[in-house]
Amino acid sequence: MEKESIDQVTELESEKTRGKTRASRKSALDFRKYTKQIWLAGLGAFSRAEEEGNKLFDSLVKVGEELESKTIDAADTTVNKVAEKAKESVTDTKDKVERIIDQSIHHSLNRIGLVTAKDLQHIEQLLLQLHTKIDMLIEENENLKSKLSEK
Length: 151
Prior knowledge:
By secondary structure, the protein is mainly alpha-helical. Helices cover 96% and strands 0% of the residues. The protein has helices at residues 2-112, 117-150.
């Protein structure tokens, strides 16, 4: 009896071992299956991230180029406006300074009795008018002489 119970115990242990081995094989297969699924999911995620990352990168580059273009245009416009205003301001200031200097010089020359360029221009106009009148008088005088000599 003892042998029989030992055999039964051995057989029971053997069945348990076979059951454990089957369960062990099944859990090992499940583990491999899940491990492979995790690996494939990781590859899929990497692939999608790479595709989406490239699309996102390209999109960001395009937006950056548009922004840079707008910024450059705005900067150029602003610089041109500022340059125009500066030119106008410089021109206005230069004209004012020239007028002040001209008035000051004219006043100083008149005070000490010297002739200015405007005075010379006026005298030149008067001389031209006088010359024209003299020419007319000479012509009229010659016409009168010729009429007198005919008589």
